[in-house]
Records
---
Amino acid sequence: MTRRILLFGLVTILAFALVGCGTETKTAKSDGAKSEASTDQTTDTSDDSGTDADVPDPAATLTDDEAEVIAAIYMNVAAYENEDIDGVAATTDVSVRDQTVSSAEWTFDTYDLSYELEDVEVTSLTSTEAEVSLKQTTTKISGPDFNDNTVTVVHSLHKVDGEWVIYASEMVDVEYLNQ
């Protein structure tokens, strides 16, 4: 019950934080490629001397489980970005699904938002539980007053029928961008 309230509270806080002060967000600058670990081990870049250097691809260092957890986060944000209620439901645990879907429907009816993720990191992982820390920037594309913002969030996920789903989220920090 506490987890349900926490996730619903976070979704509500995020919605009101975004709506309350005058900005809206909807884009999750995350395409499918960002949600999966890369098969390339290095990325060819140029160092300060102008010579090519092989730089390790950070995604190549992820375990399969870490890549699956991060993919679930990006799928959830993509569902919000695309205003896809079924996608939101599919990436949310049944214990918080009704409240999350209701909040998402209100947000989609009220705003067109853009979402961008950065600093996505799996901070804890077992075979059935995971925590992911990230920063999410939400900006309004259209709709009533909304406060564009960047929030630091820790999402808690667990595996249900082989799929990672979000069952709780904790907002650690919020920075309003248009104040």
---
Amino acid sequence: MQINYYKNKRTIPSWIKWLFSIVVLILLILAIYGIILYKNIQEAKTKDYSQTEKIVLDKTDIVTIDKTTHYYGEKVYHIVFGHTADDVKEIAFVEKNDNNDDNEHIETFDSEEMISEENILSLWRDECSSCKFVKVNAAMIDKKALWELTYEDADQHYIIDYLSMDDGSRYEQYRFKRTFK
């Protein structure tokens, strides 16, 4: 009598192996595509920063640049924070146009005469102590220098608050109610 040891061994059908392999391959391709897409989007946001910084150094009193950010509203702005030769802090708002030439409109402000980012956050914390801070960014709307303050209130509304850099007064506010939880 011969005993078959392989009789109880279960085998996976080949079509399941192929299906599993195809699903893994598709997920791998989608992950790689997602990473490449994310990197391209991030690079597109900052691709003209060096050109903007060169324009600011050439056309304004700013001689050293601390940081460069962007604001997308009705118009696109690159915002450059820097210092003059006299070590005065300034903010330059460079309006970007579609044809990428050097004729961008530049608005500069002495940041020492304006409410700083730290001071606007302090004013906001005094006003809304139970809120959850998300971010603060410089903004320009209708040629007015503003702080764009983003946070969640106690009722879980997502709020974008535009506060004047001159005196901290509210310019406009957007409140979004969370629809899905």
